[in-house]
Specification:
The structure is a homodimer.
Chain A (H helix, E strand, L loop, with lengths): L14 E14 L2 E8 L2 E8 L9 E10 L14 E12 L17 H6 L1 H4 L3 H23 L3 E2 L5 E2 L11 E4 L2 E5 L4 H6 L1 H4 L1 E9 L12 E10 L3 H22 L1 H6 L13 E3 H12 L11 H15 L3 E5 L12 E2 L2 E5 L1 E6 L2 E8 L4 H10 L8 H8 L5 E7 H8 L13 E2 L2 E2 L1 E2 H11 L1
Parallel strand pairs in A: 3-5, 6-10, 12-13
Antiparallel strand pairs in A: 1-2, 1-4, 2-3, 4-5, 7-9, 8-9, 10-11, 11-18, 13-16, 14-15, 16-17, 17-18, 19-20, 20-21
Helix pairs in contact in A: 3-6, 3-12, 8-9
GO molecular function (chains A, B): aspartate-tRNA ligase activity; ATP binding; RNA binding
Keywords (chains A, B): Aminoacyl-tRNA synthetase, ATP-binding, Cytoplasm, Ligase, Nucleotide-binding, Protein biosynthesis
GO biological process, one term (chains A, B): aspartyl-tRNA aminoacylation
């Protein structure tokens, strides 16, 4: 019968069998100390005359659980009050020698190495914890969405036309036809508003942008809500609720990990400040002297500055910016009836970066057809989408955010690739694509 | 302030404002009856001299909540004890005239029409309920997986090589390279076993099989678990637990819907009968006289017969079949050490059809390389996957199942396409692909 590391605390004096990986080995002559890891955590095991075992090997250890002397208790690990005296060590799968040192608290590797050895680097405690946080962000999103009455839906990723206009889409050979990977589930979730009224979904966003930045991925996990029968104020309330609850659930669940990442002072305030783009630009001008009041979008430095303002003046690491210029937003965005040059759109910023974006949508069939034509697109490509508007589409709106980006921001990671288990970008699908090309050529 | 239909029960005598869609209209001269639908359910509204409103239109209705006389209570709907006397009816979005009758209890349409008008047919009560059940199957899966200690992970759908061998993959133009849509997240979830030990995930499965059947989709939602440090018995226990709990959670949550679908006698037994393929074939031979004892797989009629046996003899609508011939299963399947011609593989059958499939995996690096070569594949294409096995891979195994298929079976749907919001197959991406081709040609 196997015991988990964490359960040894209740078994002092007993013999147990553990199964897991070897995280670290310290040889002191005849005596060997092993940092043993299983899904419940780390525990120290001590043995004499052990057979040689490489780091990361999968092992089965049988031994006696001993209380550690008070002054030897390791408070950094949950099972730090006990250790195992090894009676038997069985190597289930011997690892090769590691290509780099994994014993340090921080894995000090360049990004290409981190990704080239992804199956290995993910095993490092500090790296795997990123995805423990990510899991709770997702759970927080689902809990928040459900609590406002959303039904979970599953939408396709293969589409017959390029979803939202633009050329930055991946083309798929679909039997004898061309199809495309969706840039977002946007059009599908809107079609489902008259069915379920409120929906949430976890989907994929594929972006074929031929650029390499620290905050974009070619494939990412997207979280979405779409709500029928809401006006702009109700939509902003729902959006801020879901954004805030998603983050605060993850913060609640991961206090230790956040501390480990040096993230301690996150200000989550029930009152998220709301500014129009123009108001935000005015505040930035007053604070910094830099005049961006005629720009049609926030610059990255504007996002940072307005978040600094919200942190300092409004006790909030979130800030909502509304009313972006209509022509800057996607075709389905509702112009503000009061001033149609601006739109009923919004971004939610968190710690200096936009994490979530959305809008009230145009829900009139004929207006939609007109705007699609105006943008130089063919209504025929939106036939199924437009069908939904023909048969009664309520006033509605929604929003979406990327799982990897919010993970990156919460943990202050330098690059969004660190927040994706197997990131895809222009240059990499698991390995660098350029290396793949060379190999193929060599074979020929 | 908007009131949901279901909340009118607590507001008899009060004036309320409802927002939703018009499901049905019955005109009796001056008096009009409207079946009104919002996300909480259906309620009857009655008014005089109303403006004309088409079915499915989005409306706002203000009126007084009245108790219905005892003999007029509609027990089929949750708000059947009250009705609304309409004082004001505002049409928020007028629908076009419907192309078919949506007022009947069952939407009596051929599959092509059901799908050509998907945004409309999904609004029919009986159709949308399919996806209410689907949502709870997913929730049941997540609850069960979490309860056995799995971490939720997110794996990519774009891959550098065709995942599991075979040619039935969709090719993606990925910047200047060729990439593929994964047939399953199999290889990625295995790589994460040494990281999290137990993982679960919801992903996509893409199958470019050039065939049209009632139970396959080109894109489907796949649910997966993968567990480290388990032997075959423990794996079977976990698999049966997750399969059974997924279904029984949905059954618990949807008693009314299941009754509506004529599904009333589902036998969920904690003891799921386990048979090897050969044992199952022997039982089938004894029961039917049909001798399939030399076949290397279950025929569809065998699956139905052995499920009939389990239902009649073991009080269970589930049955587990193990030990399929090694050469019939994917390359990573562990052969049975006792008789390597058969493998440590299994299928879980439910109501006559396989819903879930999995195996103990080969966890030895060199054996994996050998079998990949033996199958005529190139180990270089599995470089990242094999990396995980080089650095200590525990004994492990896992399983996966399709969300749409299990939804179809639970509700006795005739075709898996009915269990997908927007099904993709060889002939259809929203609309029939052949029609798309013609239109493109016409334009030229």
């Amino acid at each position: 019968m196997r015991t988990l590391a964490i359960d040894t605390l209740q078994k002092t004096g007993e013999k147990v069998t553990l199964m897991g990986h070897v995280d670290n080995v310290r040889d002191h002559g005849k005596i060997t100390f092993i940092d043993f890891r299983d899904r419940s955590g780390i525990i120290q095991c001590v043995g004499q005359n052990l057979e040689k075992v490489n780091l990361q090997s999968a092992v089965e250890i049988s031994g006696i659980v001993n209380k550690r002397p008070e002054n030897m208790v390791n408070k950094n690990i949950a099972s730090g009050a006990v250790e195992i005296w090894i009676e038997d060590l069985k190597v289930l799968s011997q690892a090769d020698e590691l290509p780099f040192d994994m014993g340090k608290e921080v894995l000090d590797l360049q990004l290409p190495t981190l990704l080239d050895y992804r199956t290995l680097t993910l095993r490092h405690g500090k790296v795997s914890k990123i995805f423990k946080v990510q899991e709770t962000l997702m759970e927080g999103f689902r809990r928040a969405s459900k609590s406002i009455g959303c039904t979970e839906i599953f939408t396709p990723t293969i589409s017959a036309s390029s979803t939202e206009g633009g050329t930055e889409v991946f083309k798929v050979k679909y039997y004898d036809h061309d199809a495309f990977l969706v840039q977002s589930p946007q059009l599908y979730k809107q079609m489902l508003v008259p069915v379920f009224e409120r929906v949430y979904l976890v989907s994929r966003a594929y972006r074929a942008e031929p650029s390499v930045t620290t905050r974009h991925l070619s494939e990412s996990i997207q979280m979405d809500c779409e709500l029928g029968f809401v006006d702009f104020e109700e939509l902003l309330d729902a959006m801020e609720f879901v954004g805030r609850e998603t983050v605060s659930y993850a913060v609640e669940c991961n206090k230790e990990i956040l501390k480990d990442y040096g993230v301690e002072d996150i200000k989550i305030n029930k009152e998220i400040p709301r500014l129009t783009l123009r108001e935000a630009q005015k505040i930035i001008k007053e604070r910094t002297g830099i005049d961006h009041t005629n720009e049609i979008d926030m610059m990255p430095e504007d996002e940072r500055e307005i978040c600094k303002w919200a942190h300092e003046e409004r006790n909030s690491d979130f800030v909502t910016i509304t009313h972006f210029p209509t022509k800057k937003r996607a075709f389905y965005t509702m112009p503000d009836p009061v001033d149609p040059e601006y739109s009923l759109s919004f971004d939610l910023l968190f710690k200096g970066v936009e994490i979530l974006s959305g809008s009230q949508r145009i829900n009139d069939h004929n207006k939609l057809v007109a705007i699609i034509k105006e943008k130089g697109m063919d209504p025929e490509s939106f036939k199924m989408y437009l069908q939904a508007f023909k048969y009664g589409m309520p006033p509605e709106g929604g929003f979406s955010f990327g799982l990897e980006r919010i993970t990156m921001l919460l943990l202050n990671l330098a690059n969004v690739r660190e927040a994706s288990l197997f990131p895809r970008d222009m240059e990499r699908v698991d390995f660098r694509l350029s290396s793949k090309k060379k190999e193929t050529k060599k074979k020929k």
